[in-house]
TrEMBL record:
Enzyme class per UniProt: lyase
CDD domains: crotonase-like
EC assignment: 4.2.1.17
GO molecular function annotations of the record: delta(3)-delta(2)-enoyl-CoA isomerase activity; enoyl-CoA hydratase activity
Compartments, as annotated in UniProt: Peroxisome
Organism: Pseudomonas umsongensis
Major localization listed first in the record, in broad terms: other
Residues making up the signal peptide according to the UniProt record: none
Domain of life: Bacteria
Name recorded for this polypeptide: Enoyl-CoA hydratase
């Protein structure tokens, strides 16, 4: 599974690409582990100044691979998906997301931790946690209401509504929307170069000032969300919803085993 996360390093920019198009870039535990390992390593590598995360020009990620997820669900705070969250929130370097197409579940909540988010107009941002009998993750229960207000956050986290790329920009979840994936990826590369051209120590210290004030509250929220997420997985509601979704995906979707 490690080859499903491609890494490309060029002149100070590390691009991490989720590369599983036949499954709509659905994430397995092995892929979460690989992403976390690469981010932890990037944080310690002085040659890397900026990280871009993408799924390529057609799809960001459809969320968890349900087959893998149900076979090996998270059971403790060091589970692969939670470890990825820790790697992202502790990253000291600018993180850019280039989001083309679907960004479901963690594909949307990850964006709350990125310094710049670029999307295609046909992007689909959705957080269907409650519909699946689960609860928000990646600090979304704290960060989304703060960014969007309670009513808009409820449309995403409670009702599970979707946003396209243009709506994501209008709501403040993305910086700019593009007509196609190649434009989106090119724009991410240009912003990365802008970051690299800046005085690096000043950039990182300024970024730290922007994030450190709320870090303790964010980490406490992550812990609370993740513990509740583990508990929710053992409820009848979640088991019923997840198995029903898996059955529907298997019947209708060639990328079976992914979130909707």
């Amino acid at each position: 599974m490690t080859d499903l996360i491609k890494q490309d390093y060029r002149d100070g920019v590390l691009t991490l690409t989720i590369d599983r198009p036949d499954k709509l870039n659905a994430l397995t535990n092995a892929m979460y582990t690989r992403l976390a390992d690469l981010l932890f390593a990037a944080d310690e590598n002085d040659e890397i100044g900026v990280v871009i995360v993408t799924g390529g020009p057609n799809c960001f990620t459809s969320g968890n691979d349900l087959v893998d997820f149900l076979q090996e669900p998270p059971t403790h705070l060091d589970s692969p998906a939670f470890r990825l969250m820790r790697a992202v929130t502790h990253l000291r370097k600018p993180l850019i997301a280039a989001v083309c197409g679907a960004a479901i579940g963690i594909g949307t909540t990850l964006l709350l931790h990125c310094d710049q988010v670029l999307v295609t107009r046909n992007a689909k941002l959705r957080t269907p946690f409650v519909n699946l009998g689960l609860c928000p993750e990646f600090g979304a229960s704290l960060l989304l209401p703060r960014r969007l207000g309670q009513a808009r956050a409820a449309r995403l986290l409670l009702l599970g509504d979707s946003l396209d790329g243009s709506e994501a920009v209008a709501w403040g979840l993305a910086n700019e929307a593009f007509d196609d994936g190649e434009q989106c990826l090119a724009a991410a590369a240009k912003i990365a170069q802008r970051f690299l051209a800046m005085p690096q120590q000043a950039l990182r210290q300024s970024r730290q000032l922007m994030t450190q004030a709320g870090m303790a509250e964010l980490q406490a929220t992550l812990r609370e969300e993740n513990l509740l997420f583990i508990q929710r997985l053992n409820t009848v509601e979640a088991k019923t919803a997840l198995n029903a979704l898996l059955n529907r995906s298997t019947d209708k979707n060639p990328a079976k085993g992914t979130q909707p």
